[in-house]
Amino acid sequence: MSNKEPLESSQEALEASKEFAENFAKIAAQSQELVTEFLNNQQKTHIDPDPGTVGKTFMELMNKMMADPGKIIEAQAALWKNYMDLWQSAALRASGQEAGPLVTPESGDKRFKSEEWSQNQIFDYIKQSYLMTANWIQETVADVDGLDKQTKQKAEFYTKLYTDAMSPSNFFWSNPDVLKKTVESKGENLVHGLENMLDDLKRTKGQLIPKMTDESAFEVGRNIAVTPGKVIFENDLMQLLQYAPTTKEVYKRPLLITPPWINKFYILDLKAENSFIKWCTEQGYTVFVISWVNPDERHVDKTFESYMSEGVLAALDAIEASIGEREVTTIGYCIGGTLMASTMAYLAAIGEQDRIKATTFFAAQLDFEEAGDLLVFTDEDHIKLVESKMKGGYLEGKEMANTFNLLRSNDLIWSFVINNYLLGKSPFPFDLLYWNTDATNMPQKMHSFYLRNMYQKNLLQQPGALTLGGQPIDLSKIKTPIFIQASKEDHIAPFKSVFKNTKMFSGPTELMLAGSGHIAGVINHPDAKKYQHWTNTKKKKYDTAEEWFADATEHPGSWWPYWDKWLSKKSGPKVPARDPAKGKLKPIEDAPGSYVKVKAKPYSEDNGGGSK
After folding, report:
1. Which Pfam families match (predicted)?
2. What global pTM score does this model have?
Protein backbone atom coordinates (compact mmCIF):
# COMPACT_ATOMS: atom_id res chain seq x y z
CA MET A 1 0.00 0.00 0.00
CA SER A 2 1.30 3.46 -0.91
CA ASN A 3 0.34 6.95 0.14
CA LYS A 4 -1.31 7.34 -3.25
CA GLU A 5 -4.81 6.31 -2.11
CA PRO A 6 -5.08 8.84 0.76
CA LEU A 7 -3.76 11.49 -1.63
CA GLU A 8 -6.40 10.60 -4.24
CA SER A 9 -9.09 10.61 -1.55
CA SER A 10 -8.00 14.06 -0.44
CA GLN A 11 -8.11 15.33 -3.99
CA GLU A 12 -11.59 13.85 -4.51
CA ALA A 13 -12.76 15.44 -1.28
CA LEU A 14 -11.29 18.75 -2.39
CA GLU A 15 -13.02 18.50 -5.78
CA ALA A 16 -16.31 17.64 -4.06
CA SER A 17 -15.91 20.61 -1.75
CA LYS A 18 -15.26 22.87 -4.72
CA GLU A 19 -18.41 21.58 -6.45
CA PHE A 20 -20.44 22.16 -3.30
CA ALA A 21 -19.02 25.67 -2.97
CA GLU A 22 -19.74 26.48 -6.60
CA ASN A 23 -23.30 25.16 -6.38
CA PHE A 24 -24.00 27.04 -3.19
CA ALA A 25 -22.63 30.20 -4.77
CA LYS A 26 -25.14 29.65 -7.58
CA ILE A 27 -27.85 29.11 -4.98
CA ALA A 28 -26.98 32.40 -3.29
CA ALA A 29 -27.10 34.28 -6.59
CA GLN A 30 -30.35 32.65 -7.65
CA SER A 31 -31.89 33.31 -4.24
CA GLN A 32 -31.20 37.00 -4.70
CA GLU A 33 -32.77 36.85 -8.16
CA LEU A 34 -35.79 35.02 -6.73
CA VAL A 35 -36.36 37.66 -4.05
CA THR A 36 -36.00 40.46 -6.60
CA GLU A 37 -38.38 38.77 -9.04
CA PHE A 38 -40.93 38.14 -6.29
CA LEU A 39 -40.83 41.71 -4.94
CA ASN A 40 -41.03 43.25 -8.42
CA ASN A 41 -44.09 41.22 -9.25
CA GLN A 42 -45.76 42.05 -5.95
CA GLN A 43 -45.40 45.73 -6.82
CA LYS A 44 -46.92 45.21 -10.28
CA THR A 45 -49.56 42.67 -9.32
CA HIS A 46 -52.86 43.63 -7.80
CA ILE A 47 -53.79 41.05 -5.16
CA ASP A 48 -57.30 41.15 -3.74
CA PRO A 49 -57.35 41.76 -0.01
CA ASP A 50 -57.96 38.77 2.24
CA PRO A 51 -61.44 39.16 3.79
CA GLY A 52 -60.15 37.82 7.06
CA THR A 53 -62.09 34.58 6.83
CA VAL A 54 -59.27 32.48 8.23
CA GLY A 55 -58.56 34.94 11.03
CA LYS A 56 -62.23 35.20 11.99
CA THR A 57 -62.55 31.44 12.02
CA PHE A 58 -59.64 30.91 14.38
CA MET A 59 -60.74 33.80 16.59
CA GLU A 60 -64.08 32.06 17.09
CA LEU A 61 -62.27 28.79 17.69
CA MET A 62 -60.00 30.29 20.35
CA ASN A 63 -62.93 31.95 22.12
CA LYS A 64 -64.72 28.61 22.40
CA MET A 65 -61.55 26.85 23.55
CA MET A 66 -60.84 29.45 26.26
CA ALA A 67 -64.35 28.99 27.60
CA ASP A 68 -63.30 25.52 28.82
CA PRO A 69 -59.70 25.81 30.14
CA GLY A 70 -59.97 22.43 31.86
CA LYS A 71 -60.37 20.75 28.51
CA ILE A 72 -57.26 22.50 27.18
CA ILE A 73 -55.19 21.35 30.16
CA GLU A 74 -56.47 17.80 29.69
CA ALA A 75 -55.56 17.85 26.01
CA GLN A 76 -52.07 19.23 26.75
CA ALA A 77 -51.50 16.52 29.35
CA ALA A 78 -52.47 13.88 26.81
CA LEU A 79 -50.00 15.33 24.29
CA TRP A 80 -47.25 15.42 26.91
CA LYS A 81 -47.89 11.75 27.75
CA ASN A 82 -47.68 10.88 24.05
CA TYR A 83 -44.32 12.64 23.83
CA MET A 84 -43.04 10.72 26.88
CA ASP A 85 -44.14 7.45 25.33
CA LEU A 86 -42.37 8.40 22.11
CA TRP A 87 -39.17 9.27 23.99
CA GLN A 88 -39.30 5.92 25.78
CA SER A 89 -39.87 4.07 22.48
CA ALA A 90 -36.96 5.92 20.86
CA ALA A 91 -34.68 5.10 23.84
CA LEU A 92 -35.58 1.41 23.64
CA ARG A 93 -34.82 1.33 19.93
CA ALA A 94 -31.53 3.20 20.46
CA SER A 95 -30.48 0.52 22.94
CA GLY A 96 -31.12 -2.20 20.38
CA GLN A 97 -34.47 -3.39 21.67
CA GLU A 98 -37.62 -3.89 19.60
CA ALA A 99 -40.03 -0.95 19.70
CA GLY A 100 -42.93 -0.73 17.30
CA PRO A 101 -44.21 2.64 16.04
CA LEU A 102 -46.69 4.48 18.25
CA VAL A 103 -48.26 6.25 15.30
CA THR A 104 -48.22 5.46 11.57
CA PRO A 105 -49.25 7.42 8.46
CA GLU A 106 -52.74 6.90 7.11
CA SER A 107 -53.19 4.47 4.25
CA GLY A 108 -52.40 6.26 1.01
CA ASP A 109 -50.16 8.91 2.63
CA LYS A 110 -47.25 9.11 0.18
CA ARG A 111 -45.17 11.58 2.15
CA PHE A 112 -43.30 8.97 4.19
CA LYS A 113 -42.94 6.13 1.69
CA SER A 114 -39.13 6.31 1.69
CA GLU A 115 -37.56 3.49 3.77
CA GLU A 116 -35.44 6.06 5.61
CA TRP A 117 -38.52 7.35 7.41
CA SER A 118 -38.81 3.98 9.18
CA GLN A 119 -35.31 2.48 9.17
CA ASN A 120 -33.37 5.55 10.28
CA GLN A 121 -34.05 6.18 13.99
CA ILE A 122 -33.73 9.95 13.71
CA PHE A 123 -36.10 10.31 10.79
CA ASP A 124 -38.48 7.78 12.29
CA TYR A 125 -38.60 9.90 15.44
CA ILE A 126 -39.17 13.09 13.40
CA LYS A 127 -41.96 11.38 11.45
CA GLN A 128 -43.72 10.00 14.54
CA SER A 129 -43.33 13.27 16.44
CA TYR A 130 -44.92 15.16 13.54
CA LEU A 131 -47.79 12.70 13.07
CA MET A 132 -48.45 12.65 16.81
CA THR A 133 -48.56 16.45 16.99
CA ALA A 134 -50.58 16.90 13.79
CA ASN A 135 -53.16 14.32 14.89
CA TRP A 136 -53.38 15.94 18.31
CA ILE A 137 -53.92 19.42 16.84
CA GLN A 138 -56.61 18.16 14.46
CA GLU A 139 -58.37 16.11 17.15
CA THR A 140 -58.27 19.00 19.62
CA VAL A 141 -59.83 21.39 17.09
CA ALA A 142 -62.48 18.81 16.13
CA ASP A 143 -63.36 18.35 19.81
CA VAL A 144 -64.14 22.05 20.45
CA ASP A 145 -67.78 22.57 21.44
CA GLY A 146 -70.07 25.48 20.62
CA LEU A 147 -69.06 26.25 17.04
CA ASP A 148 -71.73 26.35 14.34
CA LYS A 149 -71.43 23.65 11.67
CA GLN A 150 -69.83 25.83 8.98
CA THR A 151 -67.30 27.49 11.30
CA LYS A 152 -66.34 24.09 12.67
CA GLN A 153 -65.81 22.73 9.17
CA LYS A 154 -63.69 25.74 8.21
CA ALA A 155 -61.60 25.45 11.38
CA GLU A 156 -60.92 21.76 10.76
CA PHE A 157 -60.08 22.37 7.08
CA TYR A 158 -57.70 25.28 7.76
CA THR A 159 -56.07 23.32 10.57
CA LYS A 160 -55.37 20.40 8.24
CA LEU A 161 -53.94 22.77 5.63
CA TYR A 162 -51.60 24.12 8.32
CA THR A 163 -50.50 20.72 9.63
CA ASP A 164 -49.97 19.44 6.08
CA ALA A 165 -47.81 22.47 5.30
CA MET A 166 -45.66 21.81 8.39
CA SER A 167 -44.86 18.22 7.43
CA PRO A 168 -41.12 17.46 7.79
CA SER A 169 -41.20 16.05 4.27
CA ASN A 170 -41.68 19.62 2.97
CA PHE A 171 -38.36 20.93 4.34
CA PHE A 172 -34.80 20.45 3.12
CA TRP A 173 -33.24 19.69 6.51
CA SER A 174 -35.83 17.09 7.58
CA ASN A 175 -36.45 15.15 4.36
CA PRO A 176 -34.03 12.20 4.06
CA ASP A 177 -34.53 11.88 0.29
CA VAL A 178 -33.64 15.53 -0.24
CA LEU A 179 -30.58 15.35 2.02
CA LYS A 180 -29.37 12.22 0.23
CA LYS A 181 -29.91 13.84 -3.18
CA THR A 182 -28.05 16.97 -2.04
CA VAL A 183 -25.00 14.97 -0.98
CA GLU A 184 -25.03 12.81 -4.12
CA SER A 185 -25.43 15.75 -6.51
CA LYS A 186 -23.23 18.10 -4.47
CA GLY A 187 -26.07 20.58 -4.23
CA GLU A 188 -27.08 20.57 -7.90
CA ASN A 189 -30.61 19.57 -6.95
CA LEU A 190 -31.01 22.83 -5.04
CA VAL A 191 -29.61 24.82 -7.97
CA HIS A 192 -32.10 23.20 -10.34
CA GLY A 193 -34.84 23.63 -7.74
CA LEU A 194 -34.25 27.35 -7.52
CA GLU A 195 -34.24 27.55 -11.33
CA ASN A 196 -37.63 25.81 -11.33
CA MET A 197 -38.90 28.17 -8.66
CA LEU A 198 -37.74 31.24 -10.60
CA ASP A 199 -39.41 29.92 -13.75
CA ASP A 200 -42.65 29.42 -11.84
CA LEU A 201 -42.52 32.93 -10.39
CA LYS A 202 -42.08 34.38 -13.87
CA ARG A 203 -44.79 32.14 -15.36
CA THR A 204 -47.36 33.05 -12.69
CA LYS A 205 -46.43 36.72 -12.33
CA GLY A 206 -45.17 36.39 -8.77
CA GLN A 207 -47.54 33.69 -7.50
CA LEU A 208 -45.52 30.71 -6.30
CA ILE A 209 -47.52 27.86 -7.85
CA PRO A 210 -45.38 24.86 -8.86
CA LYS A 211 -45.77 23.38 -12.32
CA MET A 212 -47.45 19.96 -12.24
CA THR A 213 -46.41 18.47 -15.56
CA ASP A 214 -44.44 19.05 -18.73
CA GLU A 215 -47.13 20.89 -20.68
CA SER A 216 -45.09 20.79 -23.90
CA ALA A 217 -45.53 17.00 -24.01
CA PHE A 218 -49.23 17.17 -24.85
CA GLU A 219 -51.48 18.77 -27.41
CA VAL A 220 -55.24 18.43 -27.57
CA GLY A 221 -56.14 16.73 -30.84
CA ARG A 222 -52.62 15.40 -31.40
CA ASN A 223 -51.93 12.92 -28.60
CA ILE A 224 -54.91 13.42 -26.30
CA ALA A 225 -58.59 13.80 -27.22
CA VAL A 226 -58.02 11.94 -30.49
CA THR A 227 -61.10 9.72 -30.82
CA PRO A 228 -62.43 10.35 -34.37
CA GLY A 229 -65.58 12.42 -34.76
CA LYS A 230 -67.05 15.66 -36.03
CA VAL A 231 -68.37 18.92 -34.63
CA ILE A 232 -71.92 18.95 -36.00
CA PHE A 233 -73.28 22.04 -34.22
CA GLU A 234 -72.05 25.07 -32.32
CA ASN A 235 -73.32 28.22 -30.66
CA ASP A 236 -71.82 30.85 -28.36
CA LEU A 237 -71.68 28.43 -25.44
CA MET A 238 -70.78 25.02 -26.79
CA GLN A 239 -69.81 22.76 -29.65
CA LEU A 240 -71.64 19.46 -30.06
CA LEU A 241 -69.37 16.56 -31.04
CA GLN A 242 -70.60 13.33 -32.65
CA TYR A 243 -68.13 10.46 -32.59
CA ALA A 244 -67.55 8.01 -35.41
CA PRO A 245 -69.04 4.54 -34.87
CA THR A 246 -66.77 1.53 -34.43
CA THR A 247 -69.51 -1.09 -34.85
CA LYS A 248 -71.70 -1.87 -37.86
CA GLU A 249 -74.84 -1.44 -35.79
CA VAL A 250 -75.62 0.94 -32.96
CA TYR A 251 -78.39 1.40 -30.45
CA LYS A 252 -81.25 3.49 -31.79
CA ARG A 253 -81.19 5.99 -28.95
CA PRO A 254 -78.03 8.10 -29.00
CA LEU A 255 -76.07 8.91 -25.85
CA LEU A 256 -75.53 12.59 -24.95
CA ILE A 257 -72.75 13.36 -22.45
CA THR A 258 -72.81 16.65 -20.54
CA PRO A 259 -69.42 17.18 -18.87
CA PRO A 260 -68.65 19.85 -16.26
CA TRP A 261 -67.68 23.27 -17.54
CA ILE A 262 -65.29 23.75 -14.62
CA ASN A 263 -62.94 21.46 -16.57
CA LYS A 264 -62.67 20.40 -20.20
CA PHE A 265 -64.51 17.38 -21.56
CA TYR A 266 -61.46 15.43 -22.68
CA ILE A 267 -61.01 13.83 -19.25
CA LEU A 268 -63.38 11.34 -20.90
CA ASP A 269 -61.01 10.98 -23.89
CA LEU A 270 -57.42 11.34 -22.67
CA LYS A 271 -55.92 8.53 -24.70
CA ALA A 272 -57.17 5.41 -26.47
CA GLU A 273 -56.38 2.99 -23.66
CA ASN A 274 -58.50 4.81 -21.07
CA SER A 275 -61.00 6.76 -23.19
CA PHE A 276 -64.55 6.39 -21.92
CA ILE A 277 -65.86 7.92 -25.14
CA LYS A 278 -64.01 5.45 -27.36
CA TRP A 279 -65.12 2.54 -25.17
CA CYS A 280 -68.76 3.63 -25.47
CA THR A 281 -68.54 3.64 -29.27
CA GLU A 282 -67.12 0.12 -29.07
CA GLN A 283 -70.19 -0.98 -27.11
CA GLY A 284 -72.45 0.24 -29.92
CA TYR A 285 -73.54 3.67 -28.70
CA THR A 286 -73.84 6.76 -30.92
CA VAL A 287 -71.97 9.18 -28.68
CA PHE A 288 -72.55 12.94 -28.60
CA VAL A 289 -70.54 15.16 -26.23
CA ILE A 290 -70.96 18.81 -25.32
CA SER A 291 -67.68 20.74 -25.48
CA TRP A 292 -68.19 23.96 -23.51
CA VAL A 293 -66.67 27.26 -24.59
CA ASN A 294 -63.87 28.69 -22.47
CA PRO A 295 -65.67 31.92 -21.47
CA ASP A 296 -64.24 35.42 -21.64
CA GLU A 297 -65.64 38.97 -21.63
CA ARG A 298 -67.98 38.04 -24.50
CA HIS A 299 -69.91 35.69 -22.20
CA VAL A 300 -70.58 37.99 -19.26
CA ASP A 301 -74.36 37.65 -19.61
CA LYS A 302 -74.42 33.84 -19.68
CA THR A 303 -76.40 32.39 -16.79
CA PHE A 304 -77.05 28.94 -15.38
CA GLU A 305 -80.22 28.99 -17.46
CA SER A 306 -78.10 29.77 -20.55
CA TYR A 307 -76.18 26.56 -19.96
CA MET A 308 -79.50 24.72 -19.95
CA SER A 309 -81.06 26.38 -23.02
CA GLU A 310 -77.91 26.85 -25.15
CA GLY A 311 -76.29 23.71 -23.81
CA VAL A 312 -78.39 20.62 -23.08
CA LEU A 313 -81.62 21.72 -24.83
CA ALA A 314 -79.74 22.99 -27.89
CA ALA A 315 -77.85 19.69 -28.05
CA LEU A 316 -81.09 17.70 -27.92
CA ASP A 317 -82.49 19.76 -30.80
CA ALA A 318 -79.29 19.39 -32.83
CA ILE A 319 -79.27 15.60 -32.35
CA GLU A 320 -82.85 15.39 -33.56
CA ALA A 321 -82.07 17.63 -36.55
CA SER A 322 -78.99 15.62 -37.49
CA ILE A 323 -80.02 11.98 -37.08
CA GLY A 324 -83.79 12.28 -36.57
CA GLU A 325 -83.85 10.87 -33.04
CA ARG A 326 -85.92 12.76 -30.47
CA GLU A 327 -85.39 10.23 -27.69
CA VAL A 328 -81.91 9.98 -26.12
CA THR A 329 -80.08 8.68 -23.08
CA THR A 330 -77.80 11.04 -21.20
CA ILE A 331 -74.85 11.31 -18.83
CA GLY A 332 -74.17 14.25 -16.53
CA TYR A 333 -70.71 14.46 -14.94
CA CYS A 334 -70.19 16.49 -11.72
CA ILE A 335 -71.70 19.98 -12.23
CA GLY A 336 -72.80 18.71 -15.66
CA GLY A 337 -74.98 16.29 -13.70
CA THR A 338 -76.40 19.13 -11.62
CA LEU A 339 -77.30 20.87 -14.87
CA MET A 340 -78.72 17.67 -16.39
CA ALA A 341 -81.01 17.08 -13.41
CA SER A 342 -82.17 20.71 -13.54
CA THR A 343 -82.87 20.38 -17.27
CA MET A 344 -84.80 17.16 -16.76
CA ALA A 345 -86.93 18.86 -14.11
CA TYR A 346 -87.60 21.69 -16.57
CA LEU A 347 -88.59 19.18 -19.27
CA ALA A 348 -90.92 17.49 -16.78
CA ALA A 349 -92.49 20.86 -16.01
CA ILE A 350 -93.29 21.51 -19.69
CA GLY A 351 -94.40 17.93 -20.36
CA GLU A 352 -91.40 16.81 -22.42
CA GLN A 353 -89.45 14.59 -20.06
CA ASP A 354 -89.87 11.61 -22.42
CA ARG A 355 -87.11 13.11 -24.61
CA ILE A 356 -84.62 11.64 -22.13
CA LYS A 357 -85.30 7.93 -21.62
CA ALA A 358 -82.51 7.14 -19.15
CA THR A 359 -79.89 9.20 -17.34
CA THR A 360 -76.59 8.44 -15.64
CA PHE A 361 -74.99 10.73 -13.09
CA PHE A 362 -71.22 10.62 -12.60
CA ALA A 363 -70.15 12.09 -9.23
CA ALA A 364 -73.01 14.61 -9.37
CA GLN A 365 -74.56 16.41 -6.40
CA LEU A 366 -78.14 17.62 -6.18
CA ASP A 367 -78.38 18.11 -2.41
CA PHE A 368 -75.39 20.11 -1.18
CA GLU A 369 -75.87 19.81 2.57
CA GLU A 370 -72.95 17.36 2.87
CA ALA A 371 -70.89 18.55 -0.07
CA GLY A 372 -67.56 18.09 1.70
CA ASP A 373 -64.68 20.54 2.03
CA LEU A 374 -65.84 22.70 -0.87
CA LEU A 375 -68.45 24.09 1.55
CA VAL A 376 -65.52 25.86 3.23
CA PHE A 377 -65.34 28.14 0.18
CA THR A 378 -69.06 28.93 -0.07
CA ASP A 379 -69.76 31.05 3.00
CA GLU A 380 -70.66 34.70 2.43
CA ASP A 381 -67.10 35.99 2.89
CA HIS A 382 -65.66 33.61 0.33
CA ILE A 383 -68.43 34.15 -2.20
CA LYS A 384 -67.98 37.92 -1.94
CA LEU A 385 -64.26 37.42 -2.50
CA VAL A 386 -64.95 35.32 -5.60
CA GLU A 387 -67.43 37.90 -6.88
CA SER A 388 -64.86 40.66 -6.37
CA LYS A 389 -62.55 38.72 -8.70
CA MET A 390 -65.20 38.60 -11.43
CA LYS A 391 -65.50 42.34 -12.07
CA GLY A 392 -64.32 41.72 -15.61
CA GLY A 393 -67.33 39.46 -16.14
CA TYR A 394 -65.77 36.08 -15.46
CA LEU A 395 -63.65 34.19 -12.95
CA GLU A 396 -60.24 33.22 -14.29
CA GLY A 397 -59.75 29.47 -14.47
CA LYS A 398 -56.67 29.46 -12.26
CA GLU A 399 -58.79 30.57 -9.30
CA MET A 400 -60.95 27.43 -9.39
CA ALA A 401 -57.88 25.29 -10.10
CA ASN A 402 -56.11 26.64 -7.02
CA THR A 403 -59.18 25.99 -4.88
CA PHE A 404 -59.40 22.37 -6.02
CA ASN A 405 -55.67 21.94 -5.39
CA LEU A 406 -56.15 23.07 -1.78
CA LEU A 407 -58.60 20.22 -1.26
CA ARG A 408 -55.71 17.79 -1.79
CA SER A 409 -52.72 19.92 -0.87
CA ASN A 410 -50.35 17.03 -0.14
CA ASP A 411 -50.86 15.50 -3.58
CA LEU A 412 -51.43 18.62 -5.68
CA ILE A 413 -49.19 21.21 -4.00
CA TRP A 414 -46.58 19.86 -1.60
CA SER A 415 -45.55 16.83 -3.66
CA PHE A 416 -44.57 19.23 -6.46
CA VAL A 417 -42.76 21.56 -4.05
CA ILE A 418 -40.63 18.58 -3.01
CA ASN A 419 -40.12 17.22 -6.53
CA ASN A 420 -39.53 20.53 -8.34
CA TYR A 421 -37.85 22.73 -5.72
CA LEU A 422 -36.13 20.43 -3.21
CA LEU A 423 -35.16 17.50 -5.43
CA GLY A 424 -34.67 19.80 -8.43
CA LYS A 425 -36.49 17.51 -10.85
CA SER A 426 -38.61 18.52 -13.82
CA PRO A 427 -42.28 17.56 -13.51
CA PHE A 428 -43.16 14.27 -15.18
CA PRO A 429 -45.28 14.33 -18.38
CA PHE A 430 -48.69 13.12 -17.20
CA ASP A 431 -51.83 13.51 -19.32
CA LEU A 432 -54.19 13.66 -16.34
CA LEU A 433 -52.24 16.50 -14.74
CA TYR A 434 -52.05 18.29 -18.10
CA TRP A 435 -55.86 18.16 -18.19
CA ASN A 436 -55.97 19.32 -14.57
CA THR A 437 -53.95 22.43 -15.41
CA ASP A 438 -55.89 23.21 -18.62
CA ALA A 439 -58.12 25.63 -16.78
CA THR A 440 -61.50 27.05 -17.80
CA ASN A 441 -63.07 30.37 -16.88
CA MET A 442 -66.50 30.89 -15.28
CA PRO A 443 -69.06 33.52 -16.41
CA GLN A 444 -69.90 35.80 -13.50
CA LYS A 445 -73.68 35.46 -13.47
CA MET A 446 -73.65 31.70 -13.91
CA HIS A 447 -70.98 31.10 -11.27
CA SER A 448 -72.56 33.35 -8.65
CA PHE A 449 -75.93 31.66 -9.24
CA TYR A 450 -74.35 28.23 -8.80
CA LEU A 451 -72.42 29.09 -5.64
CA ARG A 452 -75.29 30.88 -3.95
CA ASN A 453 -78.27 28.75 -4.95
CA MET A 454 -76.69 25.30 -4.92
CA TYR A 455 -73.93 25.34 -2.33
CA GLN A 456 -74.93 28.18 -0.03
CA LYS A 457 -78.76 27.98 -0.04
CA ASN A 458 -79.12 24.37 -1.26
CA LEU A 459 -82.26 25.21 -3.24
CA LEU A 460 -82.16 22.57 -5.97
CA GLN A 461 -83.42 19.82 -3.69
CA GLN A 462 -86.37 21.98 -2.57
CA PRO A 463 -89.43 21.57 -4.86
CA GLY A 464 -90.21 24.81 -6.67
CA ALA A 465 -87.41 26.82 -5.02
CA LEU A 466 -85.63 27.46 -8.33
CA THR A 467 -87.10 28.74 -11.58
CA LEU A 468 -85.58 27.95 -14.98
CA GLY A 469 -87.08 28.97 -18.30
CA GLY A 470 -90.02 30.48 -16.43
CA GLN A 471 -90.81 27.12 -14.79
CA PRO A 472 -90.47 26.30 -11.07
CA ILE A 473 -88.53 23.04 -11.13
CA ASP A 474 -89.08 19.98 -8.96
CA LEU A 475 -86.72 16.99 -9.13
CA SER A 476 -89.38 14.71 -7.67
CA LYS A 477 -91.38 15.08 -10.89
CA ILE A 478 -88.68 13.21 -12.82
CA LYS A 479 -89.77 9.64 -13.57
CA THR A 480 -86.86 8.73 -15.86
CA PRO A 481 -84.76 5.67 -14.88
CA ILE A 482 -81.58 6.89 -13.16
CA PHE A 483 -78.14 5.29 -12.69
CA ILE A 484 -76.06 6.99 -9.98
CA GLN A 485 -72.29 6.59 -9.85
CA ALA A 486 -70.42 7.64 -6.71
CA SER A 487 -66.77 7.19 -5.72
CA LYS A 488 -65.67 5.94 -2.31
CA GLU A 489 -62.83 8.45 -1.88
CA ASP A 490 -64.35 11.41 -3.72
CA HIS A 491 -63.35 14.69 -2.03
CA ILE A 492 -65.41 16.89 -4.36
CA ALA A 493 -68.70 14.95 -4.50
CA PRO A 494 -68.57 12.79 -1.35
CA PHE A 495 -70.39 9.45 -1.30
CA LYS A 496 -72.69 10.63 1.51
CA SER A 497 -73.74 13.58 -0.61
CA VAL A 498 -74.23 11.64 -3.86
CA PHE A 499 -76.21 8.95 -2.01
CA LYS A 500 -78.95 11.51 -1.42
CA ASN A 501 -79.68 11.45 -5.15
CA THR A 502 -81.39 8.10 -4.63
CA LYS A 503 -84.21 9.90 -2.82
CA MET A 504 -84.72 12.77 -5.26
CA PHE A 505 -86.70 11.21 -8.10
CA SER A 506 -90.03 9.46 -8.66
CA GLY A 507 -88.66 6.89 -11.10
CA PRO A 508 -86.39 3.90 -10.50
CA THR A 509 -82.82 4.59 -9.39
CA GLU A 510 -79.75 2.38 -9.15
CA LEU A 511 -76.69 3.33 -7.14
CA MET A 512 -73.19 2.01 -7.77
CA LEU A 513 -70.10 2.88 -5.71
CA ALA A 514 -66.69 2.89 -7.40
CA GLY A 515 -63.31 2.62 -5.79
CA SER A 516 -60.90 5.61 -5.81
CA GLY A 517 -61.86 9.28 -6.21
CA HIS A 518 -63.56 11.94 -8.30
CA ILE A 519 -61.59 11.20 -11.49
CA ALA A 520 -60.09 7.70 -11.17
CA GLY A 521 -63.39 6.42 -9.79
CA VAL A 522 -65.03 7.40 -13.09
CA ILE A 523 -62.22 6.87 -15.60
CA ASN A 524 -61.38 3.20 -15.03
CA HIS A 525 -61.16 1.22 -18.27
CA PRO A 526 -61.92 -2.50 -17.87
CA ASP A 527 -58.60 -3.42 -19.50
CA ALA A 528 -56.72 -1.70 -16.67
CA LYS A 529 -58.10 -4.21 -14.12
CA LYS A 530 -57.84 -1.60 -11.37
CA TYR A 531 -59.80 -0.74 -8.25
CA GLN A 532 -63.20 -2.25 -7.52
CA HIS A 533 -66.88 -1.33 -7.30
CA TRP A 534 -69.83 -2.10 -5.08
CA THR A 535 -73.42 -2.86 -6.05
CA ASN A 536 -76.53 -3.46 -3.99
CA THR A 537 -79.47 -5.15 -5.71
CA LYS A 538 -81.56 -5.66 -2.58
CA LYS A 539 -85.04 -4.20 -2.90
CA LYS A 540 -84.71 -2.06 0.19
CA LYS A 541 -84.85 1.64 0.91
CA TYR A 542 -81.83 2.84 2.81
CA ASP A 543 -81.75 5.95 4.97
CA THR A 544 -77.98 6.43 4.89
CA ALA A 545 -75.00 5.70 2.68
CA GLU A 546 -73.50 3.62 5.48
CA GLU A 547 -76.54 1.32 5.57
CA TRP A 548 -76.43 0.88 1.78
CA PHE A 549 -72.71 0.07 1.85
CA ALA A 550 -73.12 -2.48 4.66
CA ASP A 551 -75.42 -4.52 2.39
CA ALA A 552 -73.39 -3.96 -0.81
CA THR A 553 -71.36 -6.56 -2.70
CA GLU A 554 -67.79 -5.82 -3.76
CA HIS A 555 -66.63 -6.66 -7.29
CA PRO A 556 -63.08 -6.40 -8.68
CA GLY A 557 -62.22 -4.05 -11.53
CA SER A 558 -64.13 -1.50 -13.56
CA TRP A 559 -67.84 -0.80 -13.21
CA TRP A 560 -68.23 0.18 -16.88
CA PRO A 561 -69.48 -3.25 -18.06
CA TYR A 562 -72.06 -3.30 -15.24
CA TRP A 563 -73.33 0.12 -16.32
CA ASP A 564 -73.37 -0.96 -19.96
CA LYS A 565 -75.77 -3.81 -19.10
CA TRP A 566 -78.05 -1.26 -17.44
CA LEU A 567 -77.95 1.32 -20.25
CA SER A 568 -78.14 -1.10 -23.18
CA LYS A 569 -81.58 -2.26 -22.03
CA LYS A 570 -82.80 1.33 -22.21
CA SER A 571 -81.22 2.30 -25.53
CA GLY A 572 -83.68 0.69 -27.94
CA PRO A 573 -83.07 -1.77 -30.80
CA LYS A 574 -79.99 -1.84 -33.02
CA VAL A 575 -79.93 0.22 -36.26
CA PRO A 576 -77.24 0.78 -38.91
CA ALA A 577 -74.30 2.81 -37.61
CA ARG A 578 -74.43 6.58 -38.16
CA ASP A 579 -71.55 8.37 -39.81
CA PRO A 580 -71.26 11.92 -38.34
CA ALA A 581 -70.07 13.16 -41.73
CA LYS A 582 -73.33 12.08 -43.35
CA GLY A 583 -75.95 13.51 -41.00
CA LYS A 584 -78.42 16.22 -41.93
CA LEU A 585 -76.28 18.83 -40.16
CA LYS A 586 -73.14 19.63 -42.11
CA PRO A 587 -69.99 18.97 -40.03
CA ILE A 588 -68.15 22.11 -38.98
CA GLU A 589 -64.77 20.59 -38.18
CA ASP A 590 -63.12 17.44 -36.87
CA ALA A 591 -63.28 16.42 -33.22
CA PRO A 592 -62.21 17.52 -30.70
CA GLY A 593 -63.19 20.89 -32.16
CA SER A 594 -61.77 24.35 -31.61
CA TYR A 595 -63.55 25.37 -28.39
CA VAL A 596 -61.65 22.85 -26.27
CA LYS A 597 -58.32 24.14 -27.57
CA VAL A 598 -58.87 27.68 -26.27
CA LYS A 599 -56.61 28.27 -23.28
CA ALA A 600 -57.67 30.34 -20.31
CA LYS A 601 -55.89 33.66 -20.01
CA PRO A 602 -52.43 33.18 -18.46
CA TYR A 603 -51.58 34.73 -15.11
CA SER A 604 -52.20 38.40 -15.67
CA GLU A 605 -50.78 41.45 -14.03
CA ASP A 606 -54.29 42.77 -13.52
CA ASN A 607 -55.74 39.92 -11.52
CA GLY A 608 -52.78 38.30 -9.79
CA GLY A 609 -54.00 34.83 -8.92
CA GLY A 610 -53.89 32.23 -6.26
CA SER A 611 -56.57 31.26 -3.79
CA LYS A 612 -56.82 33.07 -0.54
Report:
1. PhaC_N
2. 0.89
